[in-house]
Amino acid sequence: MLAALPIAAALCGALVVALALLLANDRLPPLDSLIDYRPRIPLRVYTADNVLIGEFGEERRTYVKINEVPDLMKNAVLAAEDARFFEHGGVDFIGIVRSAGVNLLSSGKEQGASTITMQIAREFFLSPEKTYTRKIVEILLALRIEEQLTKEQILELYMNQIFLGKRAYGFAAAAQTYFGKPLADITAAEAAMLAGLPKAPSRFNPLVNPKRATERQRYILKRMRDFNFIDESAYQAALAQELKYAASGTDYQVNAPYVAEIARQAAFDLYKEDSYVAGLKVYTTILAQDQAAANEALKQGVLEYDRRYGYRGPEGFIDLAANAAKAEEQIESAIGEAGDLEEFLAAVVLEASPARVLVSRGKGSTIEITGPGLKFVANSLSPKAEGDRKMRPGAIVRITESKPKQFELTQLPEVESALVAANTEDGSVRALVGGFNFNQNKFNRVTQSIRQPGSSFKPFIYSAALEKGFMTTTIINDAPISIDPALTGGQVWDPKNYDGTFSGPMQMRTALAKSKNMVSIRILQNIGPKYAQDYITRFGFEAERNPAFLTMALGAGSVTPWQMVGAFSIFANGGFRVDPYLISRIVNQQGQVVAKAQPSHAGDESMRAIDGRNAFIMDSMMRDVVQKGTATKARSLKRNDLAGKTGTTNDSHDAWFAGYSPKIAAVAWVGFDTPRKLGDRETGGGLALPIWIKYMEKALRNSPEVPQQVPNGVVQINGDYYYSETRPGQGVSAVGITEGGVSSGENAEQIKNQVF
Q1: Which entry of 81, 156, 467, 682 is annotated as an active-site residue?
Q2: Which residue in 224, 238, 248, 318 could disulfide with 229, CB within 3.0 to 4.6 Å?
Q3: Is 569 noted as a catalytic residue in this protein?
Q4: What confidence score (pLDDT) does residue 748 get?
């Protein structure tokens, strides 16, 4: 009788467990989220040539079908997590018994023996708590999953859903995050490293814990060999491979954060929070090579200016504690607060002398800088240096790696710049750089910065004058002038030319090439500021930002580089308004186009902004600016189809160059966000033009020169161009000229030689 008690107890226990399982089974959640799997795919932004430039969403994930996952990756995961995956029915009972025995002996509640299917159940339906009750539910869910999904479907879910650290979900995203390459290109060594992450993404992160991660990688490689997933030679090669990880902050082949942010805002405006999880793809009009060229041109221009004005001193100071541990804590805090900005790394000075500077990057590491690496900051190391300019222990500085393991002391520029380029035929933006460093300042100076354009605005006043009867050969006096306050909107105005000299009477063509201020003022005085204010709206400028005063002649209104690139495109394309646009289409996860741009095109008469004759003559005048005016540096490109206009505002607060080839218009701007003087002799031709040239040098590399085509209604007489006839609605024409000579009406010579 007593001998039967254990048997009865066992039977009762089994009945209780069976009843519990039945009750739990009835309360299991439905598997709808697995059967109709909708992963949270981030918003992605691409160039026109399909290069990824931005990703937005809490989860980095690239969904891949199981047949697109390379066998190396699948086998590495099976070796690491569930070698008998294709043999069991969702639960590896042998593994569970083994794990339970270990847990009982250690009095713990470690789960152990979780199959891939059980991990899927836990990932989708269960909390992370570790209890025997939850384990039972996990087992039941795994069995039910195996009933309703194939092994391939389960593995596909796992390969796409599992969290692998650094915001990466799924192995395709992890391959890009850790190694900077598509999943299809990974090696056995890389696959094993990634396969080690699901167990503990932070503990086995190779970037944070390389030693621990390598140990697990080698364990997985051994299992891959033991299960015949790889042979001995592949195993040895994988052990010998030195892994190269994607550098922090280099997730994208092309750096275009200002572009990506514009795209993000546009997608959010349309789809709100769904834009970050629905797998939308935004295709911009940006060309990857043009964007890279624009980045390099702007960076070089800003750094050259910044170096010219010398080192300003450390960014700040900390009082280093005498205690080494405390000092190390201070250093890491200071570096964390300053933050690395691309190649400009934050560091704290430990020792400083004219011959040697020792800096720390935290974590006990030190870098010694000598010789050429000290050249830029030499004045700060001099014994005569004083105050906040003096380099001393505790100084927070910037260093860059000029050559491998060779560093130099530098600084972050204070000056800012912007560059935007667009196709003159349809307004599609080819490149956009909104500032020197997006992470330092996200303000987009192409679209958001409203600045005075200075002399770069003169072409629009000259274009208005052509419609009022002026000609390129009209003589205007470059002489001193004093303007009544009523005509300036302020006080008495005694304007000057940039160089302080006056050249007397000259042709209008020459005046634009030489950027003569007095001539522009007299032209505007003659045609009337109100007429000009209305006229410039044809180019996309806002009348209210450009008041109808004579100061408009020198660009005292307000514009953005975005407006300027669209406006100058009109001169390049024969007179048609083509508004710049950046997004060509938005595509959903199924590949369907859900939004698409509808740009205007040159040649569409409904979009005509100015007379084609006007555009041609203005183009010829601005080609002179390049050939023999204030932009002759652009002749270094050795092309005859370039045109544009320099611009320097009062007190050199803004430097511009707006120019174009027949197919590409580009605008470069340099200035401080809070306007202040750039320097006594700083001009648009000296600061903005070199940036424009460096960009155009690459953008036009494979573009043949486009000859100028004379439109109908324009004739050439004595080397210059004139309207051959007056057209209705054109405006007042001072003179009509035909191939046979002067038409009836006013005396042509009198008008051509009139001095205003």
Answers
A1: 81
A2: 224
A3: no
A4: 38
State residue 551 phi and psi, 5-degree precision.
-65, -20
> Is residue 544's pLDDT more than 90?
yes
Choose between 4 and 398: higher pLDDT.
Answer: 398
Q: What is residue 509's DSSP assignment?
A: H
Instruction: Tell me if 263 sits within 8 A of 583, measured CB to CB.
Output: yes
Mean pLDDT of the 519-538 span: 97
CB count in 10 Å sphere of residue 536: 23
Helix (H/G/I), strand (E/B), else coil: 725: coil
Tokens 């796409």, residue? 160
Instruction: Kindly state the average pLDDT of the residues 122-145.
Output: 77
DSSP string, 589-625: TTS-EEEE-----TT-GGGB-S-HHHHHHHHHHHHHH
Taking the C-alpha atoms of residue 559 and residue 448, their distance in angstroms, rounded to an integer, is 10
Q: Distance (Å, rounded) from C-alpha 104 to C-alpha 94?
A: 16
Tokens encoding 511: 């005046």
In 196-280, alpha helices (H):
210-226, 232-240, 257-271
Distances (CA, A) of 592 to 106, 586, 587, 588, 596: 56, 8, 5, 5, 11
Question: Taking the model in full, what pTM does it have?
Answer: 0.85
Tell me which residue has tokens 């303007």: 483
pLDDT given for residue 749 in this prediction: 42
CA distance 276 to 283: 15
Contact call for residues 751 and 732 (beta carbons, < 8 A): no
The answer for residues whose C-beta is within 8 angstroms of residue 250's C-beta and 6 or more apart is 180
Q: Is 386 a catalytic residue?
A: no
Which residue in 455, 515, 584, 733 is the catalytic one? 455
Find, among 77, 68, 62, 61, the residue nearest to 195 by Cα. 77
Burial 496-521 (b: 16+ CB within 10 A, else e): ebbeeeebeebbbbbbbbbbbbbbbb
Mind listing the pLDDT tens digit for each residue in 697-745?
A: 999 999 999 988 999 999 999 999 999 875 443 433 332 222 222 222 3
